[in-house]
Amino acid sequence: MTEREKGPAAPGRETGVATRTRPKTKKPTLYRVLLLNDDYTPMEFVVEVLVRIFNKTPEDAARIMLHVHQNGVGVCGVFTYEVAETKVAQVMDAARRAQHPLQCTMEKE
């Protein structure tokens, strides 16, 4: 039986529809991962890093590498903070292990 069929509500007791408000989810802040040019790291190594760490195709990796070479800096990708931080650490680790001075950093989008 519905509330209407039962008759009026008891005094002091209100009837109505309960609504639940959903909290608005905020999109996470994004960060650009940047490669910095140097005159010592081989271009092939930069392409390998872009393919292996950033999952770029060899063609995209070569295009980004040339952009970095010609402009001094280039964007490898845009990620959430934790992912960007991990990518930067992976690049720096790979460069250190290969004894190249390649630098990688991140900045807020």
From TrEMBL:
UniProt region (Disordered), positions on chain: 1-24
Pfam families per UniProt: ClpS
GO MF term list: peptidase activity
GO biological process: proteolysis
Gene3D superfamilies: 3.30.1390.10
Keywords noted in UniProt: Hydrolase, Protease
InterPro entries in the cross-refs: ClpS (IPR022935), ClpS_core (IPR003769), Ribosomal_bL12_C/ClpS-like (IPR014719)
Highest taxon above the source species: Bacteria
Adaptor protein ClpS core domain location: 26-105
Subunit field text: Binds to the N-terminal domain of the chaperone ClpA.
NCBIfam families attached to this UniProt entry: PRK00033.1-2, PRK00033.1-5
PANTHER family in alphabetical order: ATP-DEPENDENT CLP PROTEASE ADAPTER PROTEIN CLPS, ATP-DEPENDENT CLP PROTEASE ADAPTER PROTEIN CLPS1, CHLOROPLASTIC
Family membership: Belongs to the ClpS family.
Function: Involved in the modulation of the specificity of the ClpAP-mediated ATP-dependent protein degradation.
Protein name (database record): ATP-dependent Clp protease adapter protein ClpS
Gene: clpS
